[in-house]
């Protein structure tokens, strides 16, 4: 295998570059995955998939505030049975890791969907225990230590592939939940999902999102999520995947210096379009060269040494 | 790949300036918006009806800061929009997406139903440019043929071919028959199409046959409008960001889906 | 008394306008308070004052990220004894409410400082139980339900003036803490303090703030804090003072529609300078007029009606 | 009220380009920075020494993208900065604050110790402008008189009055004596002053006596540098944002504090 300074390893997954597609972003179509594979994406996380199909919330499901977005899509997804075809097709045409994001309305649902996703060919699952706007899934589990533990444990016991847990930043102490996740068997952590937020239109005096509340993503949240990653790196030994406001290679480096082994890109696809993966990878490469690092793994957590 | 500027996506809430009834189901709504008034034919907006819904609509006209959309009531959002009053607030984001090219000289515009909205806008923009234009519009019945009186004035030195399925106006039949008829006789530099997807698919197949470049304006479910959420994906493209206008080369890449399948609100592929 | 559409009442305090100076912003000098009084500030919250003087942290104590700031001043303050003179002087020269912000390293310290502040002439106290970067005060109390309750109760039992509690957004569920604060006797809530965040310099690979972590303020946090205010208005009946990223009159209106009876301005003083109070007040007035509201109190919480 | 642009306050980390030793305690450090290279005399920067401190420093010179500051080692940050090597990274925010006016014709510049840094920058900028300039600099002893050789070249058609307390160079005595002496003989349109605050307070009192407009560059503890934190407040002013240059009218408003008291790191008023 040719040596590549951007190679990264996350819980046994081998990524050609540390830039991944975040869950819920353009993630229904394998054709689109192929498009960004050409841009050098290192791994792909699908839309969060549940047991049954879901329509999601009425529009508006997203609102832009400065250079951030508040979204309350409401987890629209075709359900794991329908999505099986996409997973199979993806495994046929892609040669980068495919991680299926999984949510459930109960611990059992998490387990069932995760098992099916792996059976259909997913290289790993990412448990979305942190969706801030759909009732009875996501946060209801991600903010409840005991449920969180049991959900992860159950999935771990039943799948043979890596289990990544996507944490919520909407908690008093994220390290507490990270510790629980790792104790329950999480092979890696994604930090984090979006931050609970809202927007009001002053002309109509009404909340804009149909769901009123949504999850805040993009550049505004970066300093908050960076802090989460920094705290997590101090606390856990499993790899951390950074997700929150990463828009350019500088942001990516900042996250890796804080302790992220890889990073996920969401909102930046709207802000910078699909070339963002390539741009970031190129930027990281130049940085490594300029600073005389041999590979990207050398900078992970480096800012902790002070 | 269309441009995307942050300010386009910041919602502006503005009062409805004017409402015009086009026919029983369709109204034209006008409002002031600087950004949208610079939109080009083919671009669309996301229009918010406070606490009801937010839907994509093609821009029908724009001039001197005023922007119009033409809305056919087909469901809850469009019905609710069409029952709003002058002065009530709507929210607007956009303009989004790409636009029709305007380089070609001998143009054929073909639109069905409310699909002629962006073509009408295109017509207005190019009609003065010393081009040779053939405008084919079609609908089920006469009063669903939109903007007829304006189109007649605009096209007084050009060709208009109207088609109604019931024959109440112009040719009786379906619009693609008119297309085939004319292509047998004449060659065009470009075809612009907008309308029901099955019709556009037919137009595409005919255009391929006659080797005429096509630009078709596609519709898909839209949520974000800016290429993020995936609701509007077709093949490797996002209709909101990489479209809504697709040329023949692009349409060939998505010919398995174009006219056949789309994603529903659940992100599930369903037949069109 | 002349009728004034901007008049607001917060727990017995009468404000000529709903725009207040947030704690910690230019708040050592009464001369500066006079300067912004001319700009129409409705009430002033001082720097958080403790029992003893504190030097604060080494520089850098603040770093700008886009249009937000992360600060870790470390609560530099002269201590209540030294600050007595400023309070007395302020009461002599100002005719707007002076609210002394109070922090402590123990429940007793909160009580002592609050009592003294009121004795020296403060019109109210704001308990800072939410400073995100100084150990053993602020968050350590604001994130601990039981301590929070006792601290507020103790202060309430010992001062005869309004007690405002400034909440932290760095919690899983802010309404839980709000409920506790109100049960303990809080007369009003300030929502909120800054959000825990950090920044790393990629050239030196080091965290920028001397304290590593700090509190994020300014426009980026607005949608998050707005959500807090909206949630609080649903939960409590005491007045809410909004604080977080308010930069212009539109932001101010958005907060009031969400449920804030008044708003505090911090970071915007750097972004817009001291005229920001006047600008916001003028903007609110025009809005009320255009929308035919009689006074600003009519719009408080209006967006909740949907 | 000085301008403040967001980009000025975003920290840039850059390598030290050059270091020049001025005397035993003082060095001049040069780096590349576009924004600062457009700074005007009197403006300052916040300079970050990674994981050590961040301190305010006047800009000493700027040209063609290169910027210099001159630093006297007086404590931990300045010592640490002065022991850095070429190529090491520093962080820079700024330029901040207002600047000296340059309208007047007959100018007197008076600076003590490292306080002549901004005056030297001012001198360089105005010396070619057909002005009549008197430059008074002072220090304890000869080798603390900064930039002497450059100043001599710059001022070859102007007046230089140097003062050392020990008489090792120029007049023996304190700098304000030189000022009084010259004001008895000559009238000036303006006096520019920078140096220890007690000296500047004396300059102020003398300037008031002789009714000559003064612009003095003040120093206070600085944290944010942009008018937010209150560390640098004097009366109603923030030295970082409303200053650091204050004119006679402003100085009169703060005469109870100017030269007498300042805030310490705790925000407590202490004597100067
Ligand atoms: C780029 C674009 C331009 C359009 N231009 C026009 C126009 O100029 N005039 C016009 O009348 N209509 C236009 N439409 C269609 C219009 O958006 C739908 O008619 C409208 O959204 C229907 O909403 P509803 O709630 O009234 O109907 P519903 O009952 O909700 O749905 C009826 C049908 O409308 C479509 N639809 C519903 N919601 C959406 C959505 N969020 N995005 C896309 N399609 C949706 C679906 O096919 C659905 O089956 C355009 C659509 C797109 C994508
Ligand atoms: C607008 C301005 C321009 C300045 N220009 C220059 C210059 O061109 N060259 C130069 O050598 N010095 C300049 N100084 C002074 C310089 O900032 C201090 O000498 C330096 O901060 C001392 O830091 P230290 O850690 O070495 O010393 P310390 O031992 O920390 O302090 C020594 C003294 O320096 C001052 N000081 C310390 N920290 C700060 C701070 N954050 N802000 C302001 N003063 C502080 C205090 O008076 C303190 O008592 C300027 C100061 C200001 C406010
Ligand atoms: C439109 C949209 C949809 C999203 N859907 C999901 C989802 O289904 N599952 C999930 O775990 N995260 C979802 N997220 C969160 C993103 O994966 C990502 O963690 C978050 O947006 C922060 O990263 P960013 O700032 O790069 O966007 C979604 C985000 C957006 C903006
Ligand atoms: C430099 C600075 C210092 C602050 N000091 C305090 C403080 O001492 N006590 C406190 O309760 N809040 C303090 N805060 C928080 C502000 O009062 C305010 O709640 C927060 O900054 C959010 O509002 P903003 O976005 O308008 O700045 C400080 C904020 C800043 C930026
Ligand atoms: S509507 Fe969201 S990607 Fe097109
Ligand atoms: S240094 Fe912060 S206000 Fe001047």
Structure notes:
The complex is a heterotetramer, with 2 copies of chain A (306 residues) and 2 copies of chain B (272 residues). Chain A is of the alpha/beta class and 306 residues long. Chain A is 36% helix and 20% strand. Chain A has one domain: TIM Barrel. Chain A is built from 10 helices and 16 strands. In chain A, the strands form 4 sheets. In chain A, strands 3-4-7-8-9-10-15-16 form an 8-stranded parallel β-barrel, surrounded by 7 helices. The longest helix of chain A is centred in the first third of the chain and has 15 residues, at 79-93. The radius of gyration of chain A is 18 Å and the shape is globular. The two termini of chain A are 35 Å apart. The mean pLDDT of chain A is 95. By secondary structure, chain B is α/β, with parallel strands linked by helices. Chain B is built from 7 helices and 19 strands. Chain B has helices at residues 34-37, 76-82, 116-126, 148-154, 175-185, 197-209, 248-253, and strands spanning 12-15, 18-21, 26-32, 44-49, 53-58, 61-63, 66-72, 89-96, 106-112, 132-139, 159-164, 171-172, 190-194, 214-217, 233-234, 237-238, 245-247, 261-263, 269-271. In chain B, the strands form 5 sheets. Chain B has a 7-stranded mixed sheet with strand order 12-11-10-9-13-14-17, with helices on both faces. In chain B, strand 13, helix 6 (197-209) and strand 14 (214-217) form a beta-alpha-beta unit. Chain B is globular. Chains in contact: A-B, A-C, C-D. Chains A and C meet through strand 11, strand 13, helix 7 and helix 8 of A and strand 11, strand 13, helix 7 and helix 8 of C. Bound molecules: flavin-adenine dinucleotide (FAD) (2 copies), flavin mononucleotide (2 copies) and FE2/S2 (inorganic) cluster (FES) (2 copies). The site of one FE2/S2 (inorganic) cluster (FES) has 13 residues of chain B, from loops.
């Amino acid at each position: 295998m040719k040596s590549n300074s951007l190679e990264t390893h996350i819980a046994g997954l081998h990524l050609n570059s540390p830039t991944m597609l975040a869950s819920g972003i353009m993630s229904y179509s394998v054709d689109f995955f192929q498009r960004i594979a050409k841009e050098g994406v290192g791994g792909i996380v699908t839309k969060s998939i549940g047991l049954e199909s879901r329509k999601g919330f009425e529009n508006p499901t997203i609102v832009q505030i400065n250079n951030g977005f508040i979204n309350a899509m409401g987890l629209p997804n075709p359900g794991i049975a329908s999505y099986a075809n996409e997973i199979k097709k993806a495994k046929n045409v892609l040669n980068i890791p495919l991680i299926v994001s999984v949510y459930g309305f109960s611990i059992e649902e998490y387990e069932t969907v995760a098992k099916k996703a792996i059976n259909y060919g997913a290289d790993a699952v990412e448990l979305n225990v942190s969706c801030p706007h759909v009732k009875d899934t996501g946060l209801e589990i991600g903010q409840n230590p005991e449920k969180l533990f049991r959900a992860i444990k159950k999935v771990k016991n039943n799948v043979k592939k890596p289990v990544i847990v996507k944490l919520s930043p909407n908690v008093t102490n994220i390290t507490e939940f990270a510790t629980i996740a790792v104790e329950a068997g999480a092979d890696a952590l994604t930090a984090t999902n979006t931050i609970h937020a809202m927007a009001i239109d002053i002309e109509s005096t009404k909340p804009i999102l149909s769901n009123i509340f949504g999850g805040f993503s993009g550049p505004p949240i970066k300093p908050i999520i960076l802090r989460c990653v920094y705290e997590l790196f101090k606390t856990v030994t499993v790899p951390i995947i950074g997700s929150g406001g990463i828009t350019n290679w500088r942001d990516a480096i900042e996250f890796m210096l804080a302790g992220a082994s890889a990073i996920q890109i969401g909102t930046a696809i709207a802000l910078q379009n699909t070339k963002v993966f390539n741009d970031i990878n190129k930027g990281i490469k130049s940085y490594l060269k300029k600073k005389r690092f041999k590979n990207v793994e050398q900078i992970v957590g480096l800012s902790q040494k002070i | 790949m269309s441009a995307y500027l942050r300010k386009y996506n910041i919602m502006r809430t503005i009062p409805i300036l004017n409402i015009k009834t086009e026919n029983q189901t369709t109204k034209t709504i006008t409002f002031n918006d600087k950004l949208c008034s610079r939109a080009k034919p083919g671009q669309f907006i996301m229009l918010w009806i406070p606490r009801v819904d937010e839907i994509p609509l093609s821009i029908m006209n724009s001039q001197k800061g005023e922007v119009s959309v033409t809305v056919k009531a087909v469901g809850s959002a469009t019905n609710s929009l069409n029952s709003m009053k002058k002065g009530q607030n709507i929210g607007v984001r956009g303009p989004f997406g790409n636009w029709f090219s305007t380089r070609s000289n001998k143009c054929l515009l073909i639109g069905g139903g409310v699909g002629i909205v962006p073509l009408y806008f295109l017509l207005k923009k190019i009609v003065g440019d010393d081009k040779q234009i053939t405008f084919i519009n079609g609908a089920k019945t006469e009063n669903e043929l939109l903007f007829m009186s304006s189109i007649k004035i605009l096209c007084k030195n050009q060709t208009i071919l109207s088609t109604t399925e019931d024959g109440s106006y112009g040719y009786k039949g379906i619009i693609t028959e008119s297309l085939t008829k004319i292509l047998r006789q004449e060659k065009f530099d470009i075809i612009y199409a907008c309308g029901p997807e099955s019709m556009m698919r037919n137009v595409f197949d005919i255009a391929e046959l006659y080797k005429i470049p096509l630009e078709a304006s596609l519709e898909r479910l839209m949520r974000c409008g800016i290429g993020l959420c995936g609701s509007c994906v077709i093949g490797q493209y996002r209709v909101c960001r990489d479209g809504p206008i697709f040329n023949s080369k692009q349409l060939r890449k998505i010919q398995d889906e174009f006219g056949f399948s789309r994603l529903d609100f659940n992100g599930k592929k369903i037949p069109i």
